[in-house]
Design brief:
The complex is a heterodimer of chains A (112) and B (149). Chain A is of the alpha/beta class and 112 residues long. Chain A has one domain: 2-Layer Sandwich (Transcription Regulator spoIIAA). Chain A contains 5 helices and 6 strands, in the order ββαββαβααβα. In chain A, helix 1 packs parallel to helix 2. Classes of the chains: A alpha/beta (112), B alpha+beta (149). The structure holds adenosine-5'-diphosphate (ADP) and magnesium ion (MG).
Chain lengths: 112, 149
């Protein structure tokens, strides 16, 4: 898994590339937590366009960051998940708590 | 049902092998007419079962063995994923959605296995290990290439 990260104002954009499973969960969790901390990020936009696989270990990392960001009054937005990834997000209930957008611009527009 | 093919994988209980196992099983399963969506579901189920063996069965100890058996009949993939780890104390509880013995986890592994596969069975003995058995059949809503309609 590769991870592209960009801070725009108080929003952190995260663009993982690859598969989010147990094999990468620790690294993903650590990197996200450090980056959120360092950049004092309020909101989190997770772009899943280049994620081809997610299992419950990957979801756990996303949900953990959601809990952290929303506790501080921030929002977590999901951008363009692929169909097979979306199915897993949906079944887990994650899509009921994190809003989903077709692209980063629309997501950013919602944060305002 | 006549057995058409079978295989067995045995690998160390390290997280990197979760991806190895799901890709190997999906490649094996693709000898049948599964759709891409089916293969993705199989991958999730294998990831969950193998992940559980590593995390819960072996408590992240990396030098134990996880075994995966797969068999193909005309239209069905049969899977069996085994560990010889600590086993499950309360199977009924473990199968409840959102139940996990690890506060950091979601407790959705068995939910995914049961949603994406058929004939799901869980066998476990405390101190002896855990076996997950599940299968998936190809849909018959598609006409095979080359077949007359
Ligand atoms: N192979 C296993 N060995 C021992 N315990 C297991 C095994 N698989 C699952 N369990 C138990 O069942 C619970 C539920 O599993 P699961 O639905 O995959 O959720 P999670 O992995 O998120 O905890 C686990 O928390 C664990 O206590
Ligand atoms: Mg699990």
């Amino acid at each position: 898994m590769l991870l592209d990260i960009e801070m725009k104002k108080d929003t952190l954009f995260v663009r993982p590339n690859g598969e989010l499973d147990l094999g990468v969960a620790d690294q993903l969790r650590r990197t996200l937590d450090e980056t959120i901390e360092k950049g004092q990020a309020k909101n989190l936009v997770i772009n899943l366009a280049k994620v081809s696989f997610v299992d419950s270990s990957g979801l756990g990392v996303l949900l953990g960051r959601y809990n952290r960001v929303s506790k501080n009054g921030g929002q977590v937005l999901i951008v363009s998940p692929q169909p097979q990834v979306r199915k897993v997000l949906d079944l887990s209930g994650l899509l009921r708590i994190m809003n989903e957008y077709p692209n980063e611009n629309e997501a950013l527009g919602k944060i305002g | 049902m006549q057995l058409m093919n079978q295989m067995r994988l045995e690998f160390l209980s390290i997280p990197a092998n979760v991806a190895f196992a799901r890709v190997a099983v999906a490649a094996f399963a693709s000898q049948l007419d599964f759709t891409l969506a089916d293969l993705e579901e199989i991958k999730v189920a294998v990831s969950e079962a193998v992940g559980n063996a590593i995390i819960h069965g072996y408590g992240h100890v990396p030098d134990r063995l996880v075994r995966v058996y797969a068999a193909l009949t005309q239209d069905t993939l049969e899977l069996r994923i085994e560990d010889e780890g600590r086993g499950i104390e309360d199977i009924e509880k473990a199968l409840e959605p959102a139940f996990s013995t690890d506060a950091e986890r979601l407790g959705l592994g068995f939910v995914f296995m049961q949603s994406f596969m058929e004939n799901f069975r869980l066998e476990s003995k405390r101190g002896r290990g855990t076996t997950v058995i599940m299968s998936k059949s190809t849909g018959n809503n598609m006409v095979r290439a080359g077949e007359a309609t």
